[in-house]
Design goal:
- It comes from Zizania palustris (Northern wild rice).
- InterPro entries: Tfc3-like, WH_GTF3C1.
- This protein is α+β, with helices and mostly antiparallel strands and 125 residues long.
- It has one domain (2-90).
- It contains 7 helices and 4 strands.
- The protein has helices at 2-14, 22-28, 30-36, 42-54, 77-83, 91-97, 112-124, and strands at residues 20-21, 58-63, 69-70, 86-89.
- Strand 2 and strand 3 form a beta hairpin.
- Helix 1 (2-14) packs across helix 4 (42-54).
- The longest helix has 13 residues, at 2-14.
- The radius of gyration is 15 Å and the shape is globular.
Length: 125
Amino acid sequence: MDELVSAALEEVCARFSPGLPVTDLWPALRGALEASDLPLGPTVKHAPSARLIALLVIRLAMWEGNGAPIEPAEKDVEEAERRGVWLVASATLRDNFLRMYHCRFTKSELSVVQKATLECVGASR
């Protein structure tokens, strides 16, 4: 199950700031599910979702018309799928996914173009 949670965390990070809709998580994890020989069902959906939500670096968000995130009250995976909830990684975790571990400690910053380029490379893996 740890491999499945790790794969889910990678998928959320690879989507960067918009995050990943909960409904898109399961198709994205198809390869990890097949490798672990687990059938996709409510129990298999609940375990990695609950562990992701428990992480302080992942939050659930719903997007309103103006693009502002709002926190959903319900943290159940089936309810999250029905309500269109997204999994969003923190900025620090997204930077770590891009191997930018020490950027917040440096005097210079990446330009917008440089950061966008790194995000394209990260998303393509």
